[in-house]
Amino acid sequence: MLHTLVVYVENKPGVLSRVASLFRRRAFNIDSLTVGRTEKPDLSRMTIVVDADEDQARRIVANIYKLVNVLLVDDITGEPAIVRDLALIKVGAKHEARSHVLELASVFRARVVDVAPESLTIEITGAEDKIDGLLEVLRPYGLLEVVRTGQVAMRRGAKLSTTLAKVNGAAAIIDGENVSYSV
Amino acid sequence: MENYKPTLSGARILWECLEREGVTHVFGYPGGAILPAYDALKHSSIHHILVRHEQGATHMADGYARATGGVGVAIATSGPGATNMVTGIATAMLDSSPIVCITGQVGSKLLGSDAFQETDITGVTLPITKHNYLVTHASEVAPAVREAFYVARSGRPGPVLIDITKDAQQSTCEFDWEAAAPRMRGYRPDLSPAPEEYERALELIHTAKQPVILAGHGIFVSGALAEVQAFAEKASIPVALTLLGLGALPASHFLNMGMMGMHGEAWVNNAIQDADLLLAFGMRFDDRVTGSLKTYATKAKKIHVDIDPAEINKNVKVDVPLMGDLRKILQVLLPRVESTDRREWLDHLRRLKGDTAVRDIQNLPDNGHLYAAHVVNDLWHETRDRETVIVTDVGQHQMWEAQYYKHEHPRSLITSGGLGTMGFALPAGIGAKVARPKADVWVVVGDGGFQMTMSELATIVQENLKVNIAIINNGYLGMVRQWQEFFYERNYEATPLLNPNFSMLAQAYGIRTAAVKQRSEVIPAVRAAGEHDGAMLIDFQVEQEDSVFPMVPAGAALHEMIRRPSPLVETAEDE
Questions:
Q1: Which CATH architecture has domain A2-79+166-174?
Q2: Are the C-beta atoms of B37 and B83 separated by less than 8 Å?
């Protein structure tokens, strides 16, 4: 099944390849991996979606945790979380097709971000299946180009993480304190 | 003086930091990109040992580390110098040996340009180092070195590589040791188990009727020798050892059963299969120890003590994981574990031991053949009363050593376990001798593995080291030949060796030699080596087609062992 991991890493060169290398070495296929800055300039946050069973996921988490530049790993699979994917979809839209495409976009609450004589480019944000749905209905009009960011995810609620709250002071790690770890 | 911060080149800072980390010896080989560092060596009290191949430098650093528990240091240039280190780094990684490898790198402006002798060595070694660093400025040298030593020696130890560009060695900056102290937010090696996990562990221990302790290399790393012995004695639990665990409990101790696994004692493997509780102390259930996982100790509950969370439930599902430092964990358990009478279980094990003696090569009448087991046994007899470090290579001789040399002391055996690196013994033996000059070092090596790194004979001579070398020469890549015999219908493809005359070879280096073909000559030759001031090489020409027994075929259950046919004499003549 698909597991969603949130990983906090130090914002240093080579850290992405250290993390990615773990998946390559164990022949796990990464479904998606996004990485970006956080509110702290020295911290990056990754959202990794990987196809693995329970055991494999636990080992992946343990191995990511072992990396010296990794501050925190959180497996949020099955936890209440907001998960979003963003896509830009360039679709063929001549003549009468154009209004149909615009209608579909509005049903999906997507935005048109570029208009050309023979195409429209649509931006959509949402859960993966919503984007898959829009792509499906647009396919007959001719998908010229599609790009997706991959998933970003965040636990719901004020706490950083419920499982991590058990571990003494999850927020402290991000602020540079020590923490213990439990499988 | 405390606050004096001199301005120094990156190269000088490197040596200064190594000295402050307690380094007295480094093993290395110079070259273009590391020359500024070598030039600055004149300011340092560190003794540099010139090797003949960079692989040798890494194994020496590894042998040095394993002989003492400290950190070994190897140094090389960029490109081929660095890539030659790869095998030694991987060896240290799989055996959790703390070494720091320093490599020169092309100038930072040339990085990624395919410059002369440029290799992306941090990329190459990413999966075989615990961590690595690319240093491109003098100001990064001190923090990288301090972090590298901290990472290498803490938690589960391992190799760390520091790649330093030439300009980082040449440029200068203010050297501030204090400011370079490791501050690593993402590295937390100090784990400890939750209190309820101790409770669960104690309950399993107290209800077990047939427990076995599996003792591994982690016992040395953690320094838990006394605790393991006290724990085993108090709870009356017999101890089986991994290859790297040999010496963790004296071989003569009444609870020490001996080595387990593929070439372990039959009765040890049978005991594990009969056990109702396994206590894994600093070992990782390697496939050479478990045999088939499906049939491994199916009746036993498992308690796994390890400092590396990634080892828990990796190969064997455990009932109670105790993650953290073994010594600290045993210190918590020791006062709480109950003294238990397990006479029945211990008597049962003693009975299991019975059928081994009739098959033991030592107990058979002398048939004129020289067996490797005889050599190892006699070597043990002759060296047991002195502080001796045996350094073995990989293959049949390694297993015979493990079976027949009775290790009473910790760090008296150094061997490549996890990676199984042929060519390890000679350089690792040099490292061990440098680390422990007062100990007698015996390199026990096959005729195949010896030829992989025999260029280091020159290092022995140049450094005037007294390293004794026992070549177990059977004219084959013996372990591969054994597999061909058992599993490939005796198709001895690419295993017979045409060897040089090892005595003449060693004499060319000025090393004293002896050749031994009879059992009666073994002890005199070992004594002659002991009495000689310099290095000595003995070419033990042993039975060519002997095999290591018992043997658990790869993928078979641990109790499905191929046993030595008895009586042995007939077999030897068949072949």
A1: 2-Layer Sandwich (3.30)
A2: no
Query: Which positions in chain A touch B192 (Cβ < 8 Å)?
Result: 180
Q: Could you confirm whether B353 is annotated as catalytic?
A: no
* Test the B interface: residue of A22, A163, A180 with most B CBs within 10 Å: A180
ipTM (interface predicted TM)? 0.85
Question: Which fold, A82-148?
Answer: Alpha-Beta Plaits (3.30.70)
**Chain A residue set in contact with B, beta carbons under 8 Å:** 9-10, 13-14, 17-18, 21, 25, 55, 58-59, 62-63, 65-71, 173, 176, 178-183
Q: B126, A69: Cβ pair inside 8 Å?
A: no
- pTM of the entire predicted model: 0.94
CB within 8 Å of chain A, chain B residues 311-370:
312-314, 321, 323
Task: Give the domain extent around B274.
Answer: 195-354
What string of pLDDT tens digits covers the 575 residues of chain B?
A: 556 889 999 999 999 999 999 999 999 999 999 999 999 999 999 999 999 999 999 999 999 999 999 999 999 999 999 999 999 999 999 999 999 999 999 999 999 999 999 999 999 999 999 999 999 999 999 999 999 999 999 999 999 999 999 999 999 999 999 999 998 888 888 889 999 999 999 999 999 999 999 999 999 999 999 999 999 999 999 999 999 999 999 999 999 999 999 999 999 999 999 999 999 999 999 999 999 999 999 999 999 999 999 999 999 999 999 999 999 999 999 999 999 999 999 999 988 887 676 677 777 767 788 999 999 999 999 999 999 999 999 999 999 999 999 999 999 999 999 999 999 999 999 999 999 999 999 999 999 999 999 999 999 999 999 999 999 999 999 999 999 999 999 999 999 999 999 999 999 999 999 999 999 999 999 999 999 999 999 999 999 999 999 999 999 999 999 988 765 544 444 43
B166 is catalytic: yes
| Angstrom distance (rounded) from CA A22 to CA A61 | 10
Catalytic site residue B117?
yes
Q: Single out the residue of B193, B184, B125, B192 nearest to residue B159, CA to CA.
A: B125
B residues 255..314 contacting A (CB < 8 A): 308-310, 312-314
Q: Is B486 a catalytic residue?
A: no
Q: Where in chain A is the domain with CATH 3.30.70.260?
A: 2-79+166-174
Chain B closest-CA separation from residue A45 CA (Å): 13
| CA atoms within 13 Å, Cβ hemisphere of A56 | 15
- Residue-by-residue DSSP string for B238-275: -EEE-GGGTTSS-TTSTTEEEE-STTS-HHHHHHHHH-
| Contact (CB, 8 A) for B431 and B472 | no
What total of structural domains would you count in chain B? 3
Answer whether the bond into residue B193 is a cis peptide, omega within 30°: no
Q: Using CB atoms, which residue from B123, B127, B309 is nearest to A183?
A: B309
Query: Which residue bears the tokens 């690593």?
Result: B184
Task: Give the count of Cβ contacts less than 8 A between chain A and B.
Answer: 56
Specify the DSSP class assigned to residue B339. Answer: P
Question: Strands B160-165, B131-135: parallel, antiparallel or unpaired by DSSP?
Answer: parallel
Q: Which residues of A touch B134 (CB under 8 A)?
A: 13-14
